[in-house]
Amino acid sequence: MHKMNSKNKTFIDKLRSSGLRPTNQRVEISKFLFNRKKTFHFTVEELKNSMNLKRSKKISTATFYNTVHALKSAGHLKEFSLENNTSYYDTNIKSHHHFFDNGKVIDIRSDKITFQKLPDAPKGKKIKNVEVVIRLENNN
Amino acid sequence: MHKMNSKNKTFIDKLRSSGLRPTNQRVEISKFLFNRKKTFHFTVEELKNSMNLKRSKKISTATFYNTVHALKSAGHLKEFSLENNTSYYDTNIKSHHHFFDNGKVIDIRSDKITFQKLPDAPKGKKIKNVEVVIRLENNN
DNA sequence: TAACTACTTTATAATTATTCTAAAGTATGT
DNA sequence: ACATACTTTAGAATAATTATAAAGTAGTTA
Questions:
Q1: Where are the domains of chain B?
Q2: Which CATH number is B6-90 given?
Q3: Helix or strand holding residue A12 (H, E)
């Protein structure tokens, strides 16, 4: 029998809908990711370090990778890549845009960018989403 | 003294302007990359394999990486990343857009997309470029 | 040309992010 | 409690990339 208060519900459901039993480790990861005010970006390594720092009993690397993957496959996380061969994950899964500023990533709300002209998808294909990256540099 | 006909000039100059002496290996790489009708995308591994396949004396991995890096730093190649922890390079350095279709990348000419609304750069920053990725999926 | 210096290439080792594996642990259903 | 299936973990394996250091090559100077 599970104790399930409304506070836990959201992030535990994300595990369930990812096909993952809500074990202790997974619940803590999901809570860390989703039980907060603002969405954020992270790498698996960063996630592991920041979570394990405070823990006496560390969660293993493989569990972080497995959990993040399952959450991503179920659509609870969005993956993106910078130019450093590392996968980044975004807890904001709504389609949105980004500023890239020397490896730093800043979200741009979807409604801040609109298009005048967009190409058609090649035949047999359709557009899944459209995302814009605005690369920044220092003013001078 | 160098023999230098007009056919070689462009890609040898790209080496020179990247701070690289035009050695045999580098000239062959630069020729392979730039002496062709259409621009294309590649990974270093792909480049190495396709070039070395035809050669009896193989060019080393390190030389491919060094040369591609220098060309990229000088702005003769553009780097981008998919979600598989590999760097891709594009011989088309003009700002342009892409369709991403399950790991396949198709160029979209810059003038095919125009914006109605774009956000301002954060203060102290300015916009270097704006690039769009249109993700595709099969029609049904 | 010979000698000197600086730059290159190469094989190989090291590193980093990620995935795989297999054993030990835990949970669930009967 | 037993059996089965799912989890966690440490550590090995893999893949892309970068670093290292020795041997090779080119360019310069005398």
A1: 6-90, 97-135
A2: 1.10.10.10
A3: helix A6-16
